[in-house]
Amino acid sequence: MAMASVFYLVVFLSLSISVTAQTPTNASASLTTACDKTPSPYLCVKHLLNFNESQTADIHLLTGLMVRAAAQYAKETAEQVYRERHGTFFGTEYEDCLNDCSESLEDAVAQLDDTTKAVDVRDFGDVEAWVGAAAADTTTCNESCKGANGVPQIKQLSDRNTEFAKLCEIIVTLAKLDVQGQH
């Protein structure tokens, strides 16, 4: 009986710790409320807090800011790939992977530039199409790197691509909320 009580106490404490760790404490209530409706609330808040205006933004502005955040994240990833391309040589599969990823990330950033225009006019169909294309670019990058999986930097690149894909899901969700709010 005592063992069961200890078990439930441990489960309760671990759940409360993980829930409180999920939302940064300096986010506004409206930002948190919007991000809670996305598939990755923590990432949503984390990336939007990079913009001061996110604290008072409506859903439309939050969508545009998330596009900027995702584009910045893709640019940072592209910069890492560039540094790797000009750094240690791990073989032709690794070099091919980095070359393909460099192109894919450049394409993803371009897709997000087009997404910005679609967000501005609240064209959800175009937002979904452009963001889908950007996310597909990182999938292409991951696919091209399968032969270089033994290289530690590939795991980091794959993790960044996974986070980018989640940012893309957040953009689509926020855009959908924005369009729904207009009707």
Automatic annotation (TrEMBL):
Lineage: superkingdom: Eukaryota
Annotated organism of origin: Rhynchospora tenuis
Q: What is this protein called?
A: Pectinesterase inhibitor domain-containing protein
Q: Which residues form the signal peptide?
A: 1-21
Q: Which UniProt keywords apply?
A: Signal
Q: Where is the Pectinesterase inhibitor domain?
A: 26-174
Any one Gene Ontology MF annotation carried by this entry is: enzyme inhibitor activity
